[in-house]
Amino acid sequence: MKKIALIPVYNEEGTLLTVLESLAPLVDRILIVDDGSSDNSPALAIEWGRNRACVEVLQLAENRGMSAALREGFLYLAARLKDGELDPDDLLLTLDADGQHDANEISELCEYVEQKGLDVALTNRDFSLYPYYKRLGNRLMTLWGSLWSGFRYSDVESGFRAMRVKILPRLLNYYVGYRYSCAQEIAILTARLGFLVDNKFSIPIHHYRSQTGLRDVVINASLGAWACLRWRLGRKMHVKPARAQPSIREEPF
């Protein structure tokens, strides 16, 4: 079983290298998707990966949001799965590039997935550093995601997750990926598609950082509901596998 880290990046030159260095000894492959950064992040990623065979950098021509960056990464890895380069049971780990997730949790998270026989493990964050209004907002969004997914989540908005690579082709049939909709979409769709999901693995958050506002909350909630409706329609229409190709420029090493 390979461990693949997928890192969406947007203007994270201050933390990116620290995050990558912490990941390198813990995973077999790192896929960085730069979301049209205007700072030095793309150059840092490319230079860091230049002599590392396990590192690939994909670049979006313009900023499209974290969810779109993840979608490009999913498409790229789904293509590698189809080519036989990846195994269906390989584990894909999504982490943020700002350093809020502790890479040292990866080994224990992967062991947890194996022991439980899971397809998806969404981590459950410690909200000690979060202000009250963010805790309340997360609780409401989690209730919303639980309602539409049919699964009782504890922290639906966490960006640190482990997923079997085999879920990507089916997920991409429905996943839109707009701004920060990824958390709701992935949580709802993976549960509705019948994958074995879990949200009990607790992790610490070492610093609080929020990039979302009220507009994003509305978008996330709307696309979460729309994800469930697309799934319902897809079941009736027997949706065919997605054929979209990544719209990126690739820097292979």
Report on the structure:
- The chain is of the alpha/beta class and 253 residues long.
- It has one domain (3-243): Spore Coat Polysaccharide Biosynthesis Protein SpsA, Chain A, CATH 3.90.550.
- The protein contains 8 helices and 10 strands.
- It has helices at residues 16-23, 41-49, 66-82, 106-116, 132-149, 168-171, 182-192, 214-237; strands at 3-9, 29-34, 55-59, 91-94, 120-122, 124-125, 161-164, 197-198, 202-203, 249-251.
- The strands form 2 sheets. An 8-stranded mixed β-sheet has the order 8-5-7-4-1-2-3-10, with helices on both faces. It has a two-stranded parallel ribbon with strand order 6-9.
- Helix 7 packs parallel to helix 8 (214-237).
- The protein starts with a strand and ends with a strand.
- Mean pLDDT is 89; it is low at 237-249.
Top keywords for this entry?
alpha/beta; 15% strand; Spore Coat Polysaccharide Biosynthesis Protein SpsA, Chain A; 8 helices; 8-stranded mixed β-sheet; 253 residues; 40% helix; globular
